[in-house]
């Protein structure tokens, strides 16, 4: 592999993206990339992006602009073009659609040698938010595309992205964060959410959208209660503030706001109403997921088909937290999960199998410990150190190709 000594150091890498919520993997790259070999800077396309605080803390240069309307794409491309020329950027790396649409075009016109975007969504056949022509524009202007799972790579090939442009680099996780969770943090969340509850805790971390399969988990939990009447279902990361929720939904529909997620919320709420009120809790958001996962006896994640969760992280969160999981195969799980070895794998949309898996893990100590151990060992492949090493080598090798 080419070594950085053959290049002028440091290599200048510009990241262009925006995301409405905190996304830890992006922060880890900013934190751990070798600053002696790579001079990194960021262009954030949202003035309230959570990434800004991280960059300030790490003293990493960045600029912020607003790109809320795709009709302003030409102006945004020009803005980014000017920045890339002034910065003499060697590598542009974009994330999410907005960053890629404007950023990759700007990099192409600025003749940045290496133009990479990481694609987190499934095939555009199932992701219809934006015209297919806009997606094609991105990959035609890019030199490289990064997929985070084999399923995401399959979707890219299905869309028509040339396979030679695609490189698989899984998401990175800071393993130490899961290992070094102070007891006080765990107990603080236990008091906040569980009180004196001591019975099995079945954990879920999923927004209330139908494809996450939350309805099937709730149906399964009803069966679990028959055997463990004091079990508790913790629904975390729902993103739902129930304060005046019905009024908000009525107002949205009256104003003809397209909000199909409201139907999903109402459907899941109807399922929850069939459970004893004391048997579940909802957590809209919890920042300390490392401590939160330590509260779970069993973790369940059941997306309803294989095309979802191409960027999903919760499978690995559970593995690194040493919590046994009942799962369907989507996202990274399809790359590593083995039934009864490092997870209990169930069919899509099958509440009976989900219940069977939960009950098996609650009753069979040997099986539970085996899965916990194997899953933790398996998850080491996602260590941020491996991710950073692969990413750095990728930047250098692709830049070297274009400098020869």
From TrEMBL:
CDD domains: GT4_PimA-like (cd03801). It holds the Pfam family Glyco_transf_4. It comes from the Bacteria. GO terms for molecular function: glycosyltransferase activity. Residues 63-176 form the Glycosyltransferase subfamily 4-like N-terminal domain. InterPro entries: Glyco_trans_4-like_N (IPR028098), Glycosyltransferase_grp1 (IPR050194). PANTHER family: SULFOQUINOVOSYL TRANSFERASE SQD2 (PTHR45947). This is Glycosyltransferase family 4 protein. It comes from Pseudanabaena cinerea FACHB-1277.
């Amino acid at each position: 592999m080419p070594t950085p000594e053959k290049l002028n150091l440091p290599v200048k890498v510009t990241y262009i993206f925006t995301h409405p919520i905190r996304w830890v993997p992006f922060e880890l790259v900013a934190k751990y990339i070798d600053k002696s070999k790579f001079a990194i800077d960021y262009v954030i396309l949202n003035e309230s992006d959570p990434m800004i605080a991280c960059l300030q803390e790490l003293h990493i240069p960045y600029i912020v602009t607003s790109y809320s309307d795709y009709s302003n794409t030409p102006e945004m491309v020009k803005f980014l073009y000017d920045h890339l020329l002034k910065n003499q950027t060697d590598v542009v790396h974009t994330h999410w659609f907005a960053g890629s649409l404007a950023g990759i075009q700007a990099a192409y016109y600025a003749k940045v040698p290496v133009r990479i975007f990481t694609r987190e969504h499934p095939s555009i056949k199932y992701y219809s938010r934006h015209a297919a022509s806009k997606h094609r524009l991105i990959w035609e202007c890019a030199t490289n595309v990064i997929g985070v799972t084999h399923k995401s790579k399959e979707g890219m090939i299905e869309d028509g992205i040339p396979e030679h442009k695609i490189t698989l680099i899984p998401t990175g996780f800071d393993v130490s964060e899961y290992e070094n969770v102070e007891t006080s943090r765990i107990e603080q969340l236990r008091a906040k959410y569980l009180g004196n509850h001591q019975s099995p805790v079945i954990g879920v971390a999923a927004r209330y959208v139908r494809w996450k399969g939350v309805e099937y988990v709730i149906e399964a939990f009803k069966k679990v209660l028959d055997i463990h009447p004091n079990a508790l279902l913790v629904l975390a990361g729902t993103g739902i503030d129930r304060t005046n929720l019905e009024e908000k939904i009525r107002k949205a529909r009256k104003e003809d706001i397209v909000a199909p997620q409201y139907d999903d919320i109402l459907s899941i709420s109807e399922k929850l109403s069939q459970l004893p009120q004391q048997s579940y809790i909802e957590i809209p958001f919890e920042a300390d997921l490392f401590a939160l996962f330590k509260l779970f006896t069993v973790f369940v994640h059941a997306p309803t088909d294989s095309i979802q969760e191409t960027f999903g992280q919760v499978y690995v969160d559970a593995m690194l937290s040493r919590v046994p999981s009942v799962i369907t195969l989507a996202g990274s799980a399809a790359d590593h999960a083995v039934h009864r070895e490092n997870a209990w794998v169930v069919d899509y949309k099958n509440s009976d199998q989900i219940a069977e898996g939960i009950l098996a893990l609650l009753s069979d100590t040997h099986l539970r410990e085996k899965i916990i151990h194997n899953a933790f060992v398996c998850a080491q492949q996602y260590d941020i150190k491996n991710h950073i090493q692969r990413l750095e080598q990728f930047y250098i090798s692709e830049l070297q190709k274009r400098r020869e």
